[in-house]
Amino acid sequence: MGGKRYYSYKKGNAAFFSLDSNYMDPEQLSWLERELSSASSAWKICYFHHPLYSDGEFHGSDLDLRARLEPVLERSAVNLVFAGHEHVYERIAAQHGIYHFVLETLENCASIISARLPR
Fold it and tell me: What is the pLDDT of residue 72?
């Protein structure tokens, strides 16, 4: 959005955080911590390309990304994480209180999810 690698926005009672998992640098992590801590929405939903958890046979879990990102998500009480990369559908049991989904595509993810969230 607007040429940015990562951004956030609200829709209804959900705050969405779109991240660049190709390059999770300290600047992006600091931005995310600030954004999450100031978010007052009932739902905090992050989405990015590489899954933190996956049983996919081609790529699997991104352990390096998990080590850097998961503590921030956990501290900030993120509810849902959506990722792609594997081109399969996976619904992972909650990890540290966060539900993870791997979707074949993240296209239109935010609009689909927010249309189904309770108001």
Answer: 94
How distant, in Å, are the alpha carbons of 36, 37, 40 from that of 104? 26, 30, 30
Report pTM.
0.80
pLDDT averaged over every residue in the chain:
81
The span from the CA of 1 to the CA of 73, in Å, is 22
The pair of structure tokens assigned to 71 is 């503590």
Residue type for position 20 = D
Q: How many CB atoms lie within 10 A of CB 55?
A: 12
Nearest by Cα to 17 from 28, 3, 2: 28
Closest among 2, 3, 6 to 72, alpha carbons compared: 6
Contact in structure between 28 and 19 (CB atoms under 8 Å): yes
